[in-house]
Design goal:
single chain, mainly alpha, 2 domains, about 70% helix
Length: about 575
């Protein structure tokens, strides 16, 4: 072997290691391939190529490169080890176990071999021999730690195996031992945050899990700003909360609309308590969502929150749209408490409808900026893990669409109740139903498009994640149909907003009371809209007067008053 060959190999291995450490894996692969073009039978370069391919997520290609190296040098132990790692990632655990057993037969005192064997045993499924495999995995972990007790990374890998074995106490113990040796190790910090996460005690606990996710990701990023998994975890939690915050007016507006339709339908029939109850419910929902959002986002760093809320595309537009929507809802709620003019009430209905449109515009803007924001905050990269990340977002939006289909049907059913009072408020309920459903549908379309583009970009270059499922055409068809129906309903409801005068303008001043008067508790009490009720009362008064006019006046019999007897005269009192 010439000195030039040795120099080329050594330089290539060193430079590719440096590039991989900087996450420049594509450049590292190109460098190794360039050297292999001159030294196609070099085992060390083939082994290095397999390692770089694994970092790129191309485990199938890595297996091919490593097997080529082993065909030339069957005693290349580290090629066998890397082969076992790649086969484990592909789920071929029997072949992986065979490869790592070959390594242990040659080098029984290397901790990495024992750690990999423990991982393979922990991942092997099946009830038969499960306890025996767990005991063997623990024995390999103990051997690895005993061989190099001062190596922090070994404790981290051992903790991951204990976590797979569902032995959380041992997992936390080993992570803490590793942190005692390397307090600034980012992977150990992240693992400790995951293993010590507070358990969600209720399936409707939407605060504990996301709050811990934000706190742990922020802690990791404070030590390693480029940590990709932490960036993705932080982005996921805050992005979901931001979408829900922008959609809150779409939840509150139907409640305010229902309050208008029911409370201003039959004046004088105990409608003030109903109005207050509905407005208080709207305020509680808005305040509750704000409190949950605050409890989760407060754990993120101020700089990250500022970037997500203020420094991204169209941030100012979304803020003003949201503020205008809340201003209209707040002003309308105040008007309902003090104003009884039917024309002003009609414009209050229009204001609620406008608030729905503004909130929808803010929500759609947020969804449409997802690709740009995710790329800018490094939540999406060109690797297989990004596909799994996008699939998670797709699943979240799909579940939200399912829930909002039922919410939209619920609101559509309540339009019938509103039509018994102020029927001109019914279009606002239908408008809110369409907006609630259209928002996640648009988000789902955007995520699917980003996912498709990334999948096409990675086609043939990386292995897809084992649990990744490509979205189907049937789902896309249903999304498009539902989206078109929502748009049609949105346009129809917007056109039906009571901007022009209608018959309710002649209702007269509304009168909302705390309890109905006694005269209205009788069986013949008048009801309906104020104008109809007033006419009914006048008609009944006239009927009563006609009945009194024809009624005969009764004769009164004179009463004889007896004469009082004469009282005797009393003597004058005498002084003493």
């Amino acid at each position: 072997m010439s000195d030039g060959t040795t120099t080329l190999r050594t330089a290539t291995l060193q430079r590719s290691d440096l590039l991989a450490a900087q996450e420049r894996n594509d450049e590292a692969l190109a460098l190794v391939d360039e050297a292999l073009a001159q030294l196609p039978d070099d085992v060390a370069l083939l082994q290095q190529r397999g390692w770089v391919l694994m970092r790129l997520g191309r485990h199938t290609d890595a297996v091919q490169s490593l097997r080529t190296a082993l065909a030339m040098a069957p005693d290349a132990v580290w090629a066998q080890h890397l082969l076992a790692v790649a086969l484990t990632a592909l789920g071929d655990l029997p072949a992986a176990s065979e490869a790592i057993a070959n390594c242990l037969a040659v080098q029984p005192d290397v901790p990495e071999h024992h750690l990999q064997q423990a991982l393979i045993l922990a991942k092997t499924r099946g009830l038969r021999g499960r306890r025996q495999r767990a005991d063997q995995a623990v024995e390999h972990l103990r051997t690895a730690i005993a061989l190099d007790p001062e190596r922090a990374a070994s404790y981290g890998r051992a903790a991951s195996v204990y976590n797979l074995l569902q032995r959380s106490a041992e997992a936390i113990e080993h992570v803490e031992k590793g942190l005692a040796l390397a307090p600034d190790d980012v992977s150990l910090i992240a693992a400790h945050a995951d293993y010590t996460a507070p358990k969600v005690t209720h399936k409707y606990d939407y605060v504990t899990g996301p709050a811990h996710q934000v706190a742990s990701a922020s802690r990791v990023l404070a030590n390693a700003p480029q940590h990709l998994s932490a960036r993705r975890a932080l982005f996921d939690a805050l992005w979901v909360r931001r979408i829900l915050a922008l959609d809150t007016p779409l939840v509150v507006a139907p409640i305010v609309t229902f309050a208008i339709g029911m409370s201003f339908a039959t004046a004088g029939e105990n409608t003030m308590p109903l109005l207050l109850m509905l407005l208080i419910a709207a305020a509680v929902i808005a305040g509750g969502r704000w409190a949950v959002s605050r409890a989760i986002t407060k754990h993120a760093s101020e700089s990250y929150r500022r970037t997500l809320l203020h420094d991204l595309p169209h941030s100012a537009l979304k803020r003003w749209l949201t503020r205008a929507s809340w201003a209209l809802l707040g002003a309308t709620s105040v008007v309902l408490l003090f104003v009884r003019d039917p024309i002003i009430i009609r414009w209050a209905i229009v204001a609620v409808g406008l608030s729905v449109l503004l909130a929808l515009a803010a929500s759609l803007t947020q969804h449409l900026t997802f690709p740009t924001v995710a790329r800018r905050l490094a939540a999406i990269s060109d690797d297989a893990h990004a596909l799994a990340h996008l699939a998670w977002h797709r699943a979240v939006l799909r579940d939200r669409v399912t829930l909002r289909v039922f919410a939209a049907l619920f609101l559509a059913a309540f339009t019938q109740a509103v039509k018994t009072g102020r029927e001109d408020a019914a279009p606002v309920l239908l408008l809110a139903a369409a907006a609630l459903l259209l928002s996640p549908l648009v988000g789902l379309i955007v995520v699917r498009r980003v996912e498709r583009d990334l999948r096409n970009h990675l086609a043939g270059t990386v292995d897809l994640p084992p649990k990744y499922r490509k979205p189907g055409i049937v789902g896309l068809s249903l999304i498009l149909i539902a989206g078109m129906l929502c748009i049609v309903q949105l346009v129809a409801s917007t056109a039906s907003l009571p901007v022009l005068p209608n018959e309710h303008d002649a209702d007269g001043a509304y009168e909302l009371t705390w309890s109905p008067p006694d005269s209205e508790k009788s069986d013949d009490a008048c009801s309906g809209r104020p104008a109809t009720r007033a006419a009914c009362i006048l008609r009944k008064q006239q009927e009563r007067q006609e009945k009194l006019k024809d009624r005969p006046i009764p004769k009164i019999t004179p009463i004889e008053i007896p004469t009082m007897p004469t009282l005797p005269t009393l003597p004058e009192p005498t002084g003493h």
